[in-house]
Amino acid sequence: MPYQLPDLGYAYDALEPHIDAKTMEIHHSKHHSGYTAKLNSAMEGTGLDGTPIVTLLTQMDMGNAALRNNAGGYYNHDLFWKVISPNNRGSLSGALKTAIEASFGSVESFKETFSNAAAGQFGSGWAWLCVHADGSLKVCSTPNQDCPLMPGVGCGGTPILGLDVWEHAYYLNYQNRRPDYINAFFNIINWNEVAQRYEQGK
Ligand code: MN
After folding, report:
1. Residue 36 burial (CB < 10 Å; 0-12/13-18/19+)?
2. Burial of 37 per CB tally in 10 Å (0-12, 13-18, 19+)
3. Which end of the chain is less congested by CB atoms within 10 angstroms, N or C?
């Protein structure tokens, strides 16, 4: 059973003005769709058909560039669309807020750490907030489509929030102003989704 491009779950213009409709359309229907198709091609002949995506990532053969890049691209974008949903966003509260304060000192300090990771990733990549089994949280960035679920990548643990800082994610609207895109991201985070991923990941 091949991997399927997940539905976005909302309209391409639903995140305006923070992320514009054209960027969302190209990002989902061209880029994410492309990773999905190339992942299915990279799976051919591996004997891994039907492997759940998380298992595929945690057991990744890091020397298989096509599988590594496209499985990462497939999973990372699926997480991204869900953590920036316009629907039922909620606010940062409860156990997740407490854990963020315990790990970073304050919510503001977390935002600064995350923003610095996103801004400081040279070239294409991602910024992540990851939870470990003891409930502690770490921030890191990764190059290309690497994902902290992969062996030895980034801060490890389970990613619960991710920000795509490839130029294709923001260039139409923000051009070279990656910091403005990072600031806008904080307006559209679906904290209910992140809190749910925190509970499942710890
Ligand atoms: Mn992307």
Report:
1. buried
2. middle
3. N
Whole-number Å distance, alpha carbon 105 to ligand 1 midpoint, is 30
Q: How far is the CA of 31 from the centre of ligand 1 (A)?
A: 6
Mean pLDDT, the chain, rounded, equals: 97
Ligand 1 center–CA 94 separation, angstroms: 30
CA of 144 to the centre of ligand 1 (A): 9
pTM given for the model:
0.97
The CATH code belonging to domain 20-202 is 3.55.40.20
Give φ, ψ of 179 to 5 degrees: -60, -35
Q: What is the pLDDT of residues 71-97, one digit of tens each?
A: 999 999 999 999 999 989 999 999 999
Distance 30 CA to ligand 1 centre (A): 10
Nearest CA to 78 out of 133, 33, 13, 115 is that of 33
Domain boundaries, the chain: 20-202
Please give the average per-residue pLDDT across 174-184, as a whole number: 98
